[in-house]
Specification:
The complex is a heterodimer of chains A (559) and B (228).
Chain A (H helix, E strand, L loop, with lengths): L3 E2 L5 E5 L9 H10 L3 H30 L9 H35 L8 H20 L27 H29 L12 H32 L13 H35 L6 H14 L15 H13 L1 H15 L8 H23 L2 H7 L3 H31 L5 H27 L16 H31 L37 H6 L12
Antiparallel strand pairs in A: 1-2
Chain B lengths: L6 E3 L5 E3 L10 E5 L2 E5 L6 H9 L14 H14 L6 H19 L20 H4 L5 E3 L4 E8 L6 E4 L5 E4 L5 E5 L2 E4 L3 H8 L4 E2 L18 E5 L2
Parallel strand pairs in B: 5-10
Antiparallel strand pairs in B: 1-2, 3-4, 5-6, 6-7, 6-11, 7-8, 9-10
The chains are: A mainly alpha (559), B alpha+beta (228).
Chain lengths: 559, 228
């Protein structure tokens, strides 16, 4: 029996189990407005991200409805421009980055045995700046329309002569706020990982999700200033008479492209690297094996991080770059496939001969493993300059980026949601609804995005408002639209699953997956202070060691 | 090195295997080179191990207090940015508010007095958590109020003292004698509290000055046993 000594002599206190006290709504509102707890902030990031995922998804459905049939009349050209611009902007800046930040906020401190982030109040500042930026981005709807120049907003389309409404001002201001938010959050994650690891946790024993979160944070810190600078230049060109991007006044529209893609290509890896980490956590648990090639997975993330900064101009092959630049950026882009392939082989080897436990997190993780290489390989094909010249700005590129962002990032994020939902809420998500969710999303994404390869090769330009009969695009576009609605149904199933599970889901317990990293060593959801005592670890699988005192990893000379 | 083992998973997806410990199994320990290692229940995690082996004595825990300044600073920065889109006066207003918020943020203290709060005797019965309401006074043995509870929490009530600069601190379990309605009585004097938390004090109201030792201590979260 657990006992404690009372400060009042002669009394021994024996804790009993008790339910958490009921609190008023006002208490919870105030709690969340002022919280600096990394877990609550992580949940806020996730909630904001999922909210904008739904919003961005609805915008995508409008785009697909418009393109479902030839000569579509669902949207007018201006509304169409706004829809695809906001879809991409929302998905990149208001869904993917926040959701990844949410997972990093919630789980990095838990996985390294810390009580909170290094700078908890800066952490709170990050989420509130994100919310302000998201609201600002969409507020422009009430001041002349939504942003309409594509998510990469090329100059001179964004200059007042061609875009006189305030929409692009809102876009630039929002991106500045979101940039500050991400930099604040990234610095926080880096310092937390470098300075707040529990005793015994060396870099060689760091969970792989933590590794990738750290690399992603470094990428954000070094890549975002380029975008923020570009956004400020754009604001000054539009409002203060400067000429950074005005060719007629001595400026250079290509400067925008360089500044944007100096951020934009690392951004691709910013959105995928933490997902690599998530998959590296999930596959071993559901294969009942340690990860294969830990060192290679960890350091290939670092290699990808470095290489991602020297490939940006492959987005600009059609702008008349000199031959030497074409050769350099084609080579560097091909080179980055090597560390990425290293990971794919290691994940496959982890599954090989494992005792596979088929569950929703595993299905999403394996589907990531199948889908992401399709996007990766089409990316390598785009590194071939003559081929790029043929298909640039066609639906082939749209297919490529969606196999990376959806087949890669989003499927991986679903895997992570199913894997860590029990830890965050104390409840299991329904496996039955999970299967519906998985198959709708998996089939839907392939129906939606695979035909886009053919559309691109048939010459359908991206950002095209509509098309006429007889171009051979009708069937592919219709299939793509049907697939988009399947994805929407899959997302709806997930939301229903989450709500039902929160209300009456099976209680998860501390460690429902019989997993091995530290976040599973505390209660679900964790106490405010995470761990009553700071854990001490000796290997990469501290919970395995705890469960198997006679067979701990470090006893075998491993990590 | 590869550890694999047999396992099953139930309808909810939870995995049960040879590395998972039976939920119903009592906590047991084994002695290894690494010291006493507990086999934990999946329902309880490390905290069960901690409770079993450290008798509720928590190590020093410092988790930061809540703050309004991050959200206010984000609003101030946003107002400043809005000025770029409309009247330039908002740039000035936003800049002033930004500087003010940063100053207030910096002025806000974050002293940690000590540990999480558990197993606290409650005068007159009732739930300890209900008695630790926001605004409850924190009173020393010499009848001085050193602050008020600003975030009521059974695990870590937070004390706030002063306004500018504001001082915060988590209340140490070891410093709490008992709880009454609207007040927490400490086992230390004002001077000792100052040494620990560097907080200012004010005289307690007469009805909150401690006048007697607790006679009846019950709480629905604890079973009270007399020591033999």
């Amino acid at each position: 029996m657990v006992t404690a000594t009372s400060p009042t002599p002669g009394i021994t206190l024996v804790p009993k189990h008790s339910e958490a006290p009921q609190r008023s709504i006002g208490y919870h509102i105030k709690d969340y407005l002022t919280t600096v707890d990394h877990k609550k902030i992580g949940m806020m990031y996730l909630f904001v991200g999922v909210f904008f995922f739904v919003a961005g998804g609805i915008e995508a459905l409008f785009v697909r409805l418009q393109l479902a049939r030839p000569d579509g009349k669902i949207l007018n050209p201006e509304q169409y421009n706004q829809m695809y611009t906001m879809h991409a902007t929302t998905m990149v800046f208001l869904f993917a980055i926040p959701v990844l930040a949410g997972f990093a906020n919630y789980f990095v401190p838990l996985m390294i045995g810390a009580r909170d982030m290094a700078f908890p109040r800066m952490n709170a500042l990050g989420i509130w700046l994100l919310i302000c930026g998201g609201v600002m981005m969409n507020t422009s709807l009430f001041f002349g329309g939504l942003p309409n120049a594509g998510w990469f907003a090329y100059a001179p389309n964004t200059l007042p002569e061609y875009n006189p409404s305030h929409a692009m001002d809102f876009w630039a201001v929002s991106l500045t706020l979101l940039g500050i938010s991400s930099i604040v959050g990234s610095i926080n994650i880096i310092v937390t990982i470098l300075k707040m690891r529990c005793p015994g946790m060396r870099f060689n024993t760091l969970p792989l999700f933590v590794w990738t979160a750290m690399v992603q944070s470094f990428l954000l810190v070094f890549a975002l200033p380029s975008l923020t600078t570009a956004a400020v230049f754009l604001l000054m060109d539009r409002n203060f008479g400067t000429n950074f991007f005005k060719a007629g006044a001595g400026g250079d529209p290509l400067l925008w492209q360089h500044l944007f893609w100096a951020f934009g290509h690392p951004e691709v890896y910013i959105l995928i690297l933490p997902v690599f980490g998530m998959v590296s956590e999930i596959l071993p648990v559901f294969s009942r094996k340690p990860i294969f090639g830990y060192i290679f997975i960890a350091w290939s993330s670092v290699a990808i991080g470095f290489l991602s900064f020297i490939v940006w101009a492959h987005h600009m092959f059609d702008t008349g770059l000199p031959s030497a630049a074409l050769a350099f950026f084609a080579s560097s882009t091909t080179l980055i496939a090597i560390p990425t392939a290293v990971k794919v082989f290691n994940w496959t080897a982890t599954l090989w001969a494992g005792r596979i436990v088929v569950s929703t997190p595993l299905l999403f993780a394996v589907s990531f493993l199948l889908m992401f290489p399709i996007g990766g390989l089409s990316g390598v094909s785009l590194a071939v300059v003559p081929f790029d010249w043929q298909v640039t700005d066609t639906y082939y590129v749209v297919a490529h980026i969606h196999y990376v962002f959806f087949g890669g990032s989003t499927l991986g994020l679903f895997a992570a949601l199913y894997y860590w939902f029990p830890k965050m809420t104390g409840r299991m998500l329904s496996e039955k609804l999970g299967m519906w969710n998985f198959w709708l999303i998996f089939l839907g994404m392939n129906l939606t995005f695979f035909p886009m390869h053919m559309l691109g090769l048939l010459g359908m330009p991206r950002r095209q408002w509509t098309y006429h009969e007889g171009l051979g695009w009708n069937l592919y576009n219709l299939i793509s639209t049907v697939g988009a609605f399947m994805i929407a149904a899959g997302v709806a199933v997930f939301l229903v699953n989450a709500i039902l599970s929160l209300v009456k889901g099976t209680r998860a317990g501390a460690d429902p997956w019989d997993a091995w990293t530290l976040e599973w060593a505390t209660t679900s959801p964790p106490a405010e202070y995470n761990f009553a005592r700071t854990p001490v670890v000796r290997s990469r699988r501290p919970l395995w060691d705890l469960k198997h005192p006679d067979d701990q990893d470090w006893m075998h000379g491993g990590h | 090195m590869s550890h694999t083992h047999d396992e099953t998973h139930d309808e909810s997806g939870r995995i049960h295997g040879s590395s998972a410990v039976d939920v119903q199994a009592p906590v047991e320990t084994k002695s290894t080179e690494a010291g006493n290692i507990a086999l934990i229940s999946p329902e309880e995690g490390f905290d069960a191990y901690d409770a079993a082996h450290h008798h509720g004595e928590h190590e020093h825990i410092h988790i930061p207090p809540p703050s309004y300044w991050p959200i206010l600073l984000s609003f101030a920065v946003t107002i400043m940015m809005i000025g770029l889109l409309g009247s330039r006066i908002w740039i000035v207003v936003g800049a002033v508010l930004t500087v003010a918020c940063i100053f207030m943020w910096g002025s806000e203290g974050s002293e940690s007095i000590a540990n999480a709060l558990t197993n606290v005797p409650v005068m007159g019965g009732g739930d300890a958590d209900d008695k630790i309401a926001n605004g409850a006074q924190v009173i020393t043995t010499d009848g001085r109020t050193i602050g008020r509870i600003t975030r009521a929490s059974e695990s870590s009530p937070l004390v706030r003292a002063g306004w500018i600069p504001t001082r915060y601190g988590y209340l140490a379990r070891s410093f709490i004698d008992h709880i009454e309605e609207g007040a927490i009585y400490l086992t230390i004097t004002e001077a000792e509290a100052k040494n620990v938390g560097n907080v200012k004090t004010t005289p307690a109201g007469p009805n909150l000055t401690r006048t007697e030792q607790p006679k009846q201590i019950t709480a629905n979260t604890f079973v009270i046993e007399k020591e033999s």
